[in-house]
Structures
1.
Amino acid sequence: MTDEVLRTENLARAFGGLQAVAGVSLSLYAGKVTALVGPNGAGKTTTFNLITGNLRADSGAAQIRGKPIMGLKPWQVARLGVARSFQDLRLFTHMTVRENVLAATETASWFWQPGGGAARRAREDRAARALEATGLAALAHARAVDLAYAERKFLSMARILAAEADIWLLDEPASGLDLASRLRFGELLRGATARGVAICLIEHNLDVVTELSDRIAFLDQGKVLAEGDPQTILRDPALAAIYFGDRPQEAA
Amino acid sequence: MLFLQLLLQGIQTGALYALTAAGFALIFGATRIFHFAHGTSFTLAGYAFLFCWNGGLPGWIGTLAGIAVAMLFGLAMERLVYRPIQRHEGSFFTVFVAAFGVAVVVQNLVGMVAGRGFASVDTRLSLATEVLPDVFLAPIFWIAIAVAVVLFAALSAFLTRTHAGVALRALAQNPDLLRAYGLSSNRLSMLAFAVGSAMAAPAAILTAMTTGLNEAIGHHVMLISMAATIVGGVGSLRGAALAGLMLGVAESVALQFVDTQWAEAVSFLVLFAFIIFRPSGFFGVAQTR
Amino acid sequence: MIAYAANLATIVAIFGILAATLNFVVGFAGIFSVAHAVFFGLGAYAGAQVALHIVPDALLACVVAAVVAGGLSLCLALPALRVRGEYFVAASLGLQMMATTLFSEAKAFTGGIGGLVAIPRPTLFGMEVSVLPLALVALALILFATALLQRGAFGRTLQALRDAESAAEALGKNVAAAKTLAMLFACAGAGIAGALFALHLSFVNVESFTMDQSVLVMAMVIIGGTGTLWGPVIGAIILLSLPAGLAFVPFIPATEVGAVQQIIYGLAMTLLMIFRPAGLVGDLSKGRATA
């Protein structure tokens, strides 16, 4: 396939007795959308947390363009070009929409950002473009906490856009969106992949998965059961049985 | 024998700390409200007892008055301060500041009404006798231990045997569950405040009989309760009680090595160390939000 | 009368610095420190020692005070990196209580309970000056710096980590560094206030650096309005004018003025939290920290 930008090898993590992730090997490619699919509790979000350094892996490795990232802190991983969204969004609730997005462009933790006025204007441009692309420009001065549901989801995407990362880890970004919003969301993703962004998407709605993804990794009980193009995976009756919970020993 | 003397004194202080801290922990566990005015319940109960005593009333009336005042104060806080705040935004800090304001007001009112400085009740119970060579104990020591033991037994019976008690414990773990079972979390929250605040009264009365009270004692009590709750592990009554006992003993035993001024600092050193190295406390799960 | 007004203005400026810097961590970073008086005290002792033993140069005293208080701000940054909310308040209270004891006992540095006395009048470039202009300039500079930081990227970073720490980290923000820096700035500012305080009174002791003082500064921030620029200064003016105002109320006995004052601000804190949690100046629509 094309250029692999992120790769995990046998990532594993247990919580108490529960093996949440049991050896996930996964690759993300520039310009491709990989969907992580699987029943609840399959370890999808945990896999994200292991990659981003929010959780420490018990074993396994991960690298970004060959650079090992295990043991890095979340902000260090972010600075290697990884942006993520959260299932519960985690917006900066008491800041305005524009401030939310501007904050995503400012990574230096020092009293001021490097680069002076020119760099500041460039960041403001980036923020403005992200707001434009997500249709939030008119709401720039509203507080995040006052937004409607779909607008919040797009604000979370706007932050990621503005961060100019080239690896996106999106945790159920399209859940609960109406059709029109979903179409716009699809455009956002296609725009990004056209620029070479590698996207990993956790998604439950299989229509969305078929519509947006180039590859599917099917996770169950902390393992990748199958990997491949959407048609093959989604037509596999064994996987469908697992996904729709027909299995007698279905765990939570 | 100094060490034994200090140890016994520490156990006495610690038993009182344990009672107060358990009340604080009960309230925090059940309602998630960091009741910073808990020390004020203690102050009010102590002074209520003091007034009754100085008015020539028998001790048991003073005791009941103390318990009633503490309970009423707790309930008033829940109704008039915490509930309205939680109805709007109710961030933890808003709650903290409001409670602190009340504590400041009450402290100064008590100072104006009852006079500033130490006040205590003289009883024969606090006269120490030599029980071992160089070890002095007053009857109050045994009373403090007995009161603590009896109250903890009663509390644990209440929490495990009665319907309301079980619900109270459940509230700490899963408020939604309660709603599903049709229990009113409002009423349980009031119950928690009533019981938790009442727990401060016996300790206040015993303190009035031993070291005495002053109008600012609430601060100290609140800080110790908070320290014990965190060191013990939030959500664990047993933890809070043990930590309270431990802090009392530590403060007292430390006197063998340092001057009295440092006694209180010892408690806060312990608290500080726990927060940095083990914020979940002895028995708690991590609560770092 | 003029001397009285000048004295009040100096004290207001000094507490304005304290309140503004405390507001910086409370209102923006959501770090609720109840130990600000500790750093005020460190600055005061450091400034006093410089004036007593080296030269009574105001600038040097302020710089040394800022360095000492800022350096020791790590004592508070450490728990701030570990815990939030109630836990951090508990840690800061613990620090405050320990520091009070330390201040009364470390006689070599603080003069113990008696404090440090006969601190010489301050000079600036060799000329003797009064503290009022220095305090006003310091307040102006600190407000200016605070405004710059609050409105710029750093303020956004602090607010972001206040609202959603994990999301801020996921966007590449080094949360630990930002919090430590914010504490450093706030505590260094408190240190400067302390040095000016020591030079102004020419006497300091532990009573000015207790928990009561921390609560008073906290009350200034709360009453004025957290997260605003001018709120804390206005809070400082109100609370410091209170005793003067009460002195003119005839039916309050002089011995009770202190208590009445505390009752008023305690009541104000409680009522504000119930009815107007954003403070007097605060704009409710801007919202507050939710720890």
2.
Amino acid sequence: MYDGGKIIAGIVIFLIFALFPIYSNIGKAYQPPKPKLDTPEIQKMVVKKCVEPKEYMIPEHMKLIVDWRDAALREAKRTYINSRGERYTISLQNTCMKCHSNKKKFCDECHKHAGVKPYCWDCHFVKEEE
Amino acid sequence: MAKAAKPPKPEEITKSLDYKKTPETHWMDTPVEFRPGMYCYGTRPKYLEEVGMPNPREWSSADEDWKLPENWKEIVLEGIADRLNKHRSFRLFMDICVRCGACADKCHFYIGTGDPKNMPVLRAELLRSVYRKYFTTGGKLLGRVAGARELTMDVFKELWYYAYQCTECRRCSVFCPYGIDTAEITIMVREIINLLGCNTDWIMGPVANCYRKGNHLGLEPHTIQSNIEMMCDDIEEITGIRIEPTFNRKGAEILFITPSGDLFGVPGVYTCMGYLMLFHELGLDYTWSTYASEGGNFGFFTSLEMAKRLYYKVYAEAERLGVKWILGGECGHMWRLWHQYLATFWKPPDNLEDPVSPITGTKFEHANSSKIVHVVEFTADLIRHGKIKLDPSRNDHLKVTFHDSCNTSRGMGFFEEPRYVIKSVCNHFYEMPENTIREKTFCCGSGSGLNSSEDMELRMRGGLPRANAVRYVHERYGVNMLANICAIDRAALPTLMQYWVPGVEVCGVHELVGNALVMTGEQKRTMDLRMEPLPGVEEEEEGEEEE
Amino acid sequence: MGVWFSLIVVIGLIVFPLIGVGLLGLNALFGIVVPYVALVVFLVGLIYRVITWGKTPVPFHIPTTCGQQKSFPWIKYSKLESPATGWEVFMRMFLEVVTFRSLFRNLRTEMGPGYRPVYGSTKWLWLAGIVFHYSFLIVLLRHLRFFRQPVPEFVSLIDSFDGFLQIGHPHLQITGVTLLLAVFYLFLRRIFIPQVKYISLPADYFPLLLIMGIAGSGILMRYFLKTDIIKVKELTMGLATLRPKVPDGIGVIFYIHLFLVSALFAYFPFSKLVHLGGIFLSPTRNLANNSRMKRHVNPWDYPVKVHTYEEYEEEFREKMKMVGIPVEKDVEEEKPEESEESEQKE
């Protein structure tokens, strides 16, 4: 007794699962997200800079934002001094979103790709984008 | 041959056991030590010659030189390779063990010896390490780091030693998350051992006997008949009824086969008397066979081929006698084989019909293909239909517990039928603790051909967990009778009880049936099948005398 | 000895990409070649293994019965422990695979008072095993977010459940922690339980340490040594779409993680980890207890030498006749010319 049919069926099912990432992407080219920095506020800037350098912001922005939340809400601290010694008002709405007023094309662009659903917007109001 | 060593005292054994202690040295660096009392003698050459097996010569398992052929290593390795290609279980079980250790403390030999090589996982690793060395890339390249080791004479002897410290009881396989069955591995190791003629005398003798004379004990036809007639004499004395069983009778409806242990020696014969009385009372149209006079099969402890050769007689005799179906007696490994192997070894002959009880009309549909029915199934059905009259009070002097035999438990799933029968014929029945019965039952310690006298210490150690559970019900409920459905149990357990739990006797289920069975026209019973006075009756008589 | 050896190998596997990517800049080797090779070795190796098992026949019908057989209608039989039909076997296997039923039965033997062995229930191994395997499964599924665009809804769902405690940022994912804890427990029992220590081989410590390395590097990368995840996805999507590329600016921690995962995949088919496939083929579990109802055929069955009734009667005829046991040939005259050679029967 061999049960060959069942074994082959098992192997096929295994391959269906194991190779899902490959065959489901066949022929597709991946377009990496392109977060847009072309808001009027940013275009107005002479030296284009964020609260911290880009290299820090990309991996650590979530930490900075949560630290800001804690500072503002739990310690009533509304001023942030960055690594360059500059002062910023701690506010998602009035600091971050002032420049990055394009949530869909800036925040969501990457978050969607990374499968991340930040809970910022559970509380914060998003301005209608035109 | 060394004289059989006496086992140490029971408390010496238990006090020496410490499961938390492991040897100082790695198991690969701990050579096997052949301790007298823990192994059996090597086979005499004549037995090998009688069945045409390789390398017959005078040798002893205690010797340094086992007188193996020069190319023994090749033979072993080819033997492994051959079996890897024939048995999925073997190949798979060599590959997938993760050594989680769930099996480790499930083996009765480990519990009784504390020897880590008796942990099922390590018993298998003894061979697995050789498998890795010669059959896997990792093992070939990395050697010991990959858990591989060379096959040397010491390694072969170690395989031998521990293959005969496993009773193929399958308890480990119940707990293994992948169902790895050490019995499968032990069977393979023993087959390989037999390629070099290194079987034990205690197994090979019965095999040779059974091959030529039809049964393990080597009883010749006239002896079988006279043994059974002697039992009939006893039955006549007990019941006043003369039973005339038939032998090799053509045209009988049913062929009855039981292990030859039931034909010789106590308490097996009492079980046999139970069968005889029951069949007589029913007027069953059945016959004994002197040719197929063995239900058991020590070939199974030798090689599957030998098991097949010995079992040729079962269906061949059923065909020759022209019976309709086959009824099998109480036996453990016999039923593992009859249930799981026999119909694969040999195709049931065409003259056999779907088994039907001539008394109740019950169709044994679960045996429609193999045409073999267990006598306890047969009796349970009779009782269920109220076809026999029983007086359970005749067993009132007994407080009974039931030992599930390994083979019928884990190789058949036979739990309720024997309990139903026992509870119908006895008023006092007590179960042993939950973790020691049914699928978790412990071996008697003497199964798979280890019930010899020279390995007595091994048997007493291996039987410790079983005996310990009996002791529990003995002390708690006063249990004095250990019932079972296995001929090896009936042969081995009395010694075990004497050693660990004096005061408990051993019987087959059909002995209890025979005691309780009210036979048509019988005289008033004053003794049980052991011809010991029935306590209640004796008092009554004495009372009468006083009047 | 096994522990140290395994530890050194795992450290080696960490140092390798550290040097290869960190110093030598072999990003393409570690980001493209190694994962592809590992995947191919994994798939081909595992399937080869399963096919090798599959080509080996099951000559005998050997289920381990852990419950009452099917016999009479008035005796309830155990459908899961002693299955009689294919469907019941399926259920037994299903529960074995998804709930580790056999391991759940586990008992611990200890020497009780009066030097009598006692058997108690113990579920720790089962618990650690089940936590480990399910955590690993969920972690694997979560990683699908790197291999699909858009990210499948079920992956996001798993993600949000897994991180529902909303601790830290990014949210702490429970399975990452439970995976690490379970593996750590499995590792500790190999060190501290004497019997388990005695049977453990390097091949037992190595996968545990390797998985600790994988989970550790993953957790490190997610919470502490963060790297540009969008670039990482560019790389993984390149692998998935078979248009591989290695974007600049991915931290070396990612390459360490990826290399350890690749090592695990490549090691898989050559190790005990093949129990993943093996469990489905185990003949003591995947056969119905119906061998008296349905004949099991052994494909390599061969004729064997047997002792026939004729030979038997030849030897014992006189003794049989003496006590009145019927015989086939009631002849007293000359015996057949020669006793025939034993027949070969199949």
3.
Amino acid sequence: MNHAIISCLHANLPAVEAVLNDIDRQGINTITCLGDLVGYGPQPNEVVELIRKRGIATCQGCWDEDIIDGLNACECSYPSQLAERRGHLAHQWTDDQLTDENKSFLASLPTSLRRDRLLFVHGSPNSQHEYLLPDMDAFAALERVETAGADILFCGHTHQPYVRELRDGSIRVRLQNADHDCDQGEELTLPMRKIVNAGSVGEPRHGSTNATYVIHNDATDEVEIKEVAYDVARTCQAIVEAGLPKVFAWRLSHGFEFAEQAEDASHVCER
Amino acid sequence: MIERWALVSGLRGNLKTYDLIQRDLKKTRGVTSLFVLGDLVGPERNCDALLDRLKNPHRGDLKPDCIYGWWEEQLLAERGFRGERKADALRLSQGEDAVNALLNTVNPSNLNWLASLQFGFIELDCALIHGSSSDVGDNLTSETSPLILLDRLTRLNVNRLFTARSTKQFHLELTGGGINSQVKDLNGKREQQQEVPKRSVIGIGAGLNYTLYDVGSDKTHFLTAGSKTNPKRNGFA
């Protein structure tokens, strides 16, 4: 059976509607959302209410957590101080806009969802703020899936969709301890595991303005990355009209984040 | 001079044990540094005399460089040095009596010094931490999955991790292996191969059991303070 996984909606209603329509057209009934319903975008209440109305199983993203717990929940990974200030502006604006009911909904979201051997998280099993990038150390990536007791880990947060299969792994070890004088050599065979990143519906950063999501077939384990065009200009207009930083509209219209990274690439937030 | 480190943990207020280790070290050739990897305090006895000795070494003592461990973390949390966190892990595992016992073992005048201790040291390509890069309470042993050990090393980008939380003495070396991965995205597919780097996790022991590490030869020696000889406790290069 096919099921769809969406992530990082970021208060972008036209993108969310386009993706849900695309999923509906394919007759897919099971949808899982990996969080970040709000932040950056101009329609946080509308997006949260649509997800609630559709009864879509959702786990909490880093923005959802920060809106509830305050910015102190952030293990900050903004690429520059300027980006961080803009992020704070968006946080404050979103906090002012969201209704108490919708905040309560975000607060009620679990940090992970599990269906048999499938695990759904926003960032990683360790944290909503940890990025599992496609080229990260393969052993560390496998450790995240294996330690969580999953065969396939679905995540978002990077805004870049990918499917990574980790296979044919082994680690040889040699041990000496205080009780044994002789070395004990052995080899651990590692299991095959998969990480599926759903990309972003509401704020793509993969080099295209199209919204992305993934479809997984739980019988064959095949994964398809889907791109959906939507009315980007409409969302950009709404961002500007809402008084949010114009760079959010610019970024949305390019599908990249590189401009912010260039401003202060060495910044590491120590908050 | 070729460096030789002494690595100690789990003193838990026992000045007699520390004194025996210092006596051992005076008789051991070439020890250049003494690292105390946490658990300076514990609930069993008053710890102030040991803390005073660590802060103010006796003449002839090898000067200790200390970090905090799991017991200090519990104490400092309960005393309000860790924001809203309390000694929840201790409370959960050993109950309220253990928390109260711990609070009574350290004079409040020593708390600021304990709170000033670091989480760990990075020396050369070695990490010296009570638990691991993941958590001060991370209990790494020779039984821990090598995948997890490799992860803890990778997080710090070091080749050797000295850990104390388990109280065990072991030297587990990752000697080889690899993994293949395939990444598929909207630009297509790409294959990646990665080999296991040669790295080690060393459990240094606790209390009377301590470890010497020869930096130049990468040899570990598992020792017990006060024992006359340690003939077959050498680690491997």
4.
Amino acid sequence: MKTFIRPSVLIVIFVLCMLPFAFPNAYIVDVAIRICLAGIVAIGLNLLMGFAGQVSIGHAAFVALGAYASGVATIRYGWSPLFALAVGAVGVAVLAYLVAKPILRLRDHTLTMATLGLGIIVHMVLVNEVAWTGGPDGMAVGPMKIGDWVLKGEMSWYALVACLLVLAIVISLNLFSSPAGRALRALHGSEVAAAVMGVNVPSFKVRVFVLSAVFASIAGSLTAHYNSFITPSLAGFMPSVELATMVVVGGMASTFGVVLGACLVVGLPQVFGGFEGFEMVFFGLALMLTVIFMPKGIVPSFAQRFAKRKS
Amino acid sequence: MLDINNLSKSFGGVMAVDDVTFEVASGTIHSVIGPNGAGKTTLFNLITGVYTPTCGNVLFSGKDITGMRPDQLAGLGMSRTFQNLRVCMNMSACENVMLGAHLRLNHGILAGMANLPALARRDAECRDEAHGFMQFAGVGQYVDAHASQMPFGALKRLEIARALATKPTILLLDEPAAGLNHTETGEISELIKKIAGSGLTVVLVEHDMKMVMNISDFVTVLNYGTRLASGTVAEVRQNPEVISAYLGTSVQ
């Protein structure tokens, strides 16, 4: 609870509250909603990649599975959206658990390749199971409903995802400084040292994989209702790479860094949108420069520089 | 305390440790020495569960611990340091030591996410405890430092502090003096004596003969993976096989 009143969290809450007043136009709010949703997924992925050091480039698969779980359950079976979201998250957790056992025995590049494979498999299934998913054409999804109350309009969506983003930030900060968070970060530092200190390495890896998949699934379900239309491209290679980029550019293991990463990865293409086709060039350039000059990521690099000047 | 019986490990065709048997008595400093490639570190890795033995077994306080994982052994009271530093460079010095308290704290992921008051309180106590261990190991001045900012000698001590934080009954030190200068080696010797004095059993792999002869109660000598000799410092010194392994045989 105390984490909510940390200065850094209060600043984020303040910015999120002021944003709609500063930019009272629907386009900016739409971008902000997308940033919040991406931020939630990236915070989850950061637990796996930044904390525990297990690189995944297939994470969008879980976003897509969450989205399709909500889509299929609400449209084909008439479930209530909130129930579908919950069941989807549990289903994704079970799937992630089953997949994690064999996958996380691999290390470094081989693990990365396996997560890439996972993304491709999910994409193929979504494309081919036409009866359920609508195939490559995608499917329409109804609005988010809580009981009889229908969530509509940009501002209500913004309020919902902004609250969830703050919640995700607080959870991530709590975990970072807890015994479990130290154990996860120790896996990144040295697996064998962690084991000798009593950390059950395989179990922690599996659990953090499941946890990060659940974050993705929940955000995926919300994305489905917000977009009101989903296609298999949600599970594509690019979305996965974008998620990994958010974590790396913003700063591995840094919660605020990852949120900044989400702002950049989702926001920059909008800023450069006027260059018609060249926006990806600017985007790629920005990423390259960050990685070259701030290999630890933006937020940790600045934090370090600031700490040095202070001492 | 620790009974090593006919322990062997082969990597492909190479017998890195070949039928080694010896016993570590409780409350002693027991050194394992031998020329480079004698299998000392492999022996350590077998005892601490990093490798699984090809055959043989290890008894710890009478319990068969062969093939157990390192984290299970930590729960039984065994801890170790590493020849090549295994400090988590992505964490602060203090957090590294706090990691040693892992099994005594509530390390559930959900508990960590909620950060309940009881957990936060225990964690604060653990931080103070970690300061104590760092002070004991002589790295008290690095309490606020990040591990990546610490010099090599201090990192070696930090590893010892971290190992002590698990509150072990047996501590295995893999070349604690490697890469240290003469003064630092002397200081590490004092620290090891202090650790043994507090009632822990210490098993030591070391190249620095002066240090080994000064602080050990018992010595086991390995050569090409086999046990050459085992006994008190005086016994091992007189052993002709040990002398020939280290100094070569005389031309007759």
